[in-house]
Specification:
six-stranded antiparallel beta sheet; 24% strand; EC 2.1.1.320; 882 residues; seven-stranded antiparallel beta sheet; binds ligand 44T; alpha+beta
């Protein structure tokens, strides 16, 4: 007998914006209650009627009632119920009624708690709203319920990185690091620190070290829900259940005695990021000293036993910096080209990446992270490494004083010649007096360095003899390093004028009143001269582009290829029109005609649906006789395009902004004029991370229907290439390799649930790996004929060397037309590469044939590899010939 739970159904009703209590009333309803049956059938009818009328909110409420009253109908109505839920959720989403939206999902999940489609869909909403961790949890759950559910798989693989960040694998695989921490903890515990708190425990490894070393009481806290749950599983699997108390909370919220009974004698933590302070270690330790730790060993009374004094592992850190020239960094943070796709870029105005430590803007981060040793094209040090900061984690006054500390200025002798692109930062973590870890670029470590890019629009050629002046400060708990000036021949040139108007200028001479001494200097170093002569009148306007958008804009070969391909298409279409005698047909460029008496020939309509900032529409418009529609959304970005249009002689009416995406069928169908179709639709088909864009083939199918005769989708085809490699690095980044690196603790099987077979954002040119084959074509996606596409393909590739195939890196050749293509594996590319890591390494001998079974489901790729047996190979070869 079912208990029927009836909710207060006004939740989520259309036009009810206040959220009623989530009260429940339990009503026992006899099974064969005719009144109930009547209610059920009437409600079901209403639900269906509302659904038909597209009144999804009311339909949803009726369905809830029906299914709660009559669970037997669940099978029958599940499809319509889901459909209603998704439609209603979309509506709530667009109305901004977020709480109502999630209430609806919660109610749906009470009815269908193991419905992977609902769980996955809720994950998508969570993801769109920025709750990535929670979203990823939902995808993971959906996938556990149905391991081969493609939508959930694709979603999960795309977000697993947020759930369990990839560095967990690297750090757990780093035996040296684990061992050093273990030794330091063991020494401290054996020295008398017997109550321990592990802040940010992750998988619980440091807490387990403390317990194993004999600590009487061990507590651990972890703010990520996924990591907390993992830590609980791991601790239990290692027989320490109940011996370590794990709390799902941020250390800052912990209190004595509420969460831990008394203050502890040791805090262990590795809540440090590449920039040291980015995970909030300063704040956490200040709080820990004030609320969770015993007082420190005092110099006045050194006799206090270690069990009565507090201390922290790591004991402190030393931060280093170094100025570098690096083209790879430059092209992601600054506009480097004066011309792209035939357009002069000067009129774009100042463009910045969102990484800047001199900006007050909340949307910027002070640094980004890179592994310097893996940057394509390498880097050139311009200074020696310098000591930027020393910090003692056992001194709470010092921690508290850090942010109020004066900005310190260092003068660094320039030792190398080159352009100043960034300051790179790393640190030594002093675990205790004896032992430390380094995250330096020369270290044999997988750790990344913090990169503080120089954002000024000019290039600064530095040379030995110059001095670089760097300001070091700590603001909002971030360490900030800012190159402020260059001293050459006794003169200082400020670099950050354009960014920070508050800093007094050394050479404020307005251009009408040139500073004579500066003019002399300007002759000496022309590249620097422009700095001091520019007018400064308050903050300069700049436009923000994402790093990938900046690199795209700097990608000349791509834009030039596109321009040529488009020119060819337009020519072909012109020819076709003149053959059909339509070349004389006169149509206005705008609707209605706005002025010119001779509106010229009928334009060609081009639609660019690239995501983010794209100048392709403008390149199209600059061809003449083209009316281009851009899907650039941000007003600032549109303004850049308008400025570029004006400066490049593109008439205003030749470029319009098309705010809706192709997936919005309704919008696309409102094409330029009823009888007009698009001459070209531009799809950006590969994401920067190296994966095919989601829903690409659906978009292509839709786009094809909207093309005029002879019109074209750009690109028309993409070809996926790959190769066999042996790469331990990729293995270490994807899964914990057994118990050995993790000090004998059993962690791998738990964290490896979050292994993702596809690695993204890979720099294949610098990946440490052995090539075990030539590159081979894996897959073709034909955008002009989506019916011609397949989802599975077997590819044979011969091993060119013996070894263990651990991964198949892949990239794309993007064919704009028959002749013109660009590769995503290219020095100038703004794209990174991706790789499938094989489930199990495959041993090959030179000459072996390897069969790769490639699957493209939705837009996620999977590859499995096996050795092709000789007999099979023969029959396969024969079969292929037929
Ligand atoms: N970065 C690796 C590691 N947490 C970042 O939720 C570090 C890369 C790396 N939990 C150079 C150097 C390095 N209370 O699971 C996370 C996080 C959690 C907290 C409770 C708190 N106050 C916090 C703060 C963070 O701690 C775990 C680790 S933090 C990130 C480590 C050598 N390149």
């Amino acid at each position: 007998m079912h208990d029927c739970v009836i909710h207060i159904y006004v939740i989520g009703m259309p036009n009810t914006s206040t959220r009623p209590k989530r009260g429940r009333r339990n009503r026992r309803v006899p099974r064969e209650d005719p009144a109930r049956n009547e209610l059920v059938s009437r409600s079901l009818e209403s639900a269906q009627q509302c659904l038909f009328n597209q009144d999804y909110g009311t339909a949803f409420v009726h369905y809830l009632l029906v299914l709660n009253l009559a669970p037997v109908l669940k099978d029958f109505a599940s499809e319509s119920f889901r459909f209603t839920l998704f439609k209603w959720a979309d509506e709530l989403d667009s109305l901004g009624r977020i709480q109502d939206l999630f209430d609806c999902y919660e109610q749906a999940l009470e009815l269908f708690p193991t419905d992977e489609v609902i769980i996955n869909s809720m994950g998508e909403h969570l993801f769109r709203m920025g709750f990535r961790d929670e979203a990823a949890g939902h995808f993971h759950k959906a996938l556990k319920l149905k391991p081969d559910y493609p939508e959930a798989k694709e979603n999960f693989y795309r977000v697993a990185n947020w759930l369990v960040e990839r560095w967990h694998f690297l750090m757990l695989n780093d035996r040296r690091r684990n061992h050093k921490y273990q030794q330091a903890i063991q020494k401290a515990v054996e020295g008398g620190c017997n109550t321990v708190l592990d802040i940010g425990t992750g998988t619980g490894i440091l807490g387990m070290c403390a317990k194993k070393a004999g600590a009487a009481e061990v507590y651990a806290c972890e703010l990520s829900k996924t990591m907390y749950e993992l830590a609980c599983e791991v601790v239990t699997a290692n027989g320490m259940n109940g011996r370590i108390k794990i709390l799902h909370m941020k250390s800052l919220e912990m209190e004595v005695p509420k969460d831990i009974p008394k203050r502890v004698s040791l805090v262990v933590t590795e809540t440090v990021d590449a920039g040291l302070f980015g995970e909030g270690i300063i704040e956490s330790l200040i709080h820990a000293w004030n609320h969770l730790l015993l007082p420190p060993q005092s110099t006045q009374d050194p006799s206090r036993p270690p069990s009565q004094a507090g201390r922290v592992i790591p004991a402190g850190a030393t931060v280093f910096g170094m100025a570098v020239q690096c083209l790879e960094i430059r092209r992601h943070h600054r506009l480097c080209v004066s011309e792209v796709g035939g357009l002069a870029t000067a009129a774009a105005g100042e463009l910045h990446s969102p990484v800047s430590c001199s900006s007050e803007d909340d949307s910027t981060e002070p640094y980004t992270t890179e592994r310097l040793s893996r940057l394509p094209g390498g880097y050139t040090p311009l200074t020696e490494p310098f000591n930027a900061l020393d910090i003692d984690f056992n001194n709470v006054q010092e921690l508290e004083g850090l942010c109020s500390r004066e900005v310190s200025r260092v003068r660094l002798p320039v030792t190398g010649e080159g352009l100043l692109d960034a300051l790179a930062v790393w640190f030594q973590l002093h675990l205790d007096q004896q032992s430390s870890l380094s995250t330096g670029p020369k270290e044999d470590t997988c750790w990344e360095q913090a990169i503080y890019p120089v954002q000024t629009p000019h290039n600064f050629p530095l040379r030995p003899g110059d001095e670089l002046i760097v300001e070091i400060s700590c603001r909002d708990a971030y360490l900030r390093l800012c190159s402020v000036a260059i001293a050459r021949d006794g003169r200082e040139f400020r670099l950050d004028d354009c960014l920070d108007p508050d800093i007094p200028r050394n050479n404020p001479g307005p251009s009408g009143n040139p500073n004579p001494s500066l003019n002399a200097e300007a002759e000496l170093c022309s590249a620097l001269a422009c700095l001091g002569t520019e007018q400064s009148s308050g903050p300069r306007d700049y436009t923000m582009l994402e790093c990938a958008e900046m690199a795209l804009l700097n990608n000349q070969p791509y834009h030039d290829s596109f321009r040529r391909a488009l020119a060819k298409l337009i020519n072909n279409l012109k020819d076709a029109r003149s053959v059909q005698g339509q070349g004389l047909e006169v149509m206005p460029l705008t609707d209605p005609p706005s002025g010119p008496m001779d509106p010229g020939p009928d334009p060609f309509y081009v639609l660019d649906v690239s995501e983010g900032f794209s100048v392709l529409s403008l390149i199209a418009a600059s061809q003449g006789q083209v009316k281009a529609y851009s899907s650039v959304e941000k007003t600032q970005h549109q303004a850049v395009l308008r400025r570029l249009a004006m400066a490049n002689g593109v008439p205003e009416e030749a470029l319009e902004f098309w705010l809706n995406q192709v997936e919005d069928e309704q919008a696309v169908l409102q094409r330029p004029s009823r009888e007009k179709l698009w001459s070209s639709i531009i799809l950006d088909c590969v994401e920067t991370c190296g994966l095919v864009r989601q829903k690409l083939m659906e978009k292509a199918t839709l786009a094809r229907c909207l093309l005029e005769d002879g019109g074209q989708i750009f690109p028309e085809r993409i070809v996926l290439y790959g190769m066999l490699v042996e790469s331990d690095t990729l293995l270490l980044e994807s899964a914990v390799q057994g118990q050995e690196p993790t000090l004998g603790f059993n962690i791998a099987p738990f964290i490896n649930q979050f292994t993702v077979p596809v690695h993204v954002f890979l720099d294949l040119s610098t990946l440490q790996c052995r090539h075990l084959s030539d590159s081979v074509e894996l897959f073709i996606l034909d955008l002009m004929n989506t019916n011609a596409n397949y989802t599975n393909r077997d590819v044979k590739v011969q091993a060119s060397a013996s070894g263990r195939v651990t991964a198949v890196p892949f990239w794309y050749q993007i064919h704009l037309n028959e002749e013109i293509s660009v590769s995503t594996f290219n020095q100038d590319s703004h794209w990174k590469q991706a790789a499938v890591v094989l489930h199990q390494p495959l041993a090959v001998r030179e000459g072996d044939w390897v069969r790769l079974a490639v699957t493209l489901q939705k837009s996620s790729i999977s590859i499995s590899a096996s050795i092709e047996e000789e007999g099979l190979l023969l029959s396969q070869a024969k079969w292929d010939e037929n």
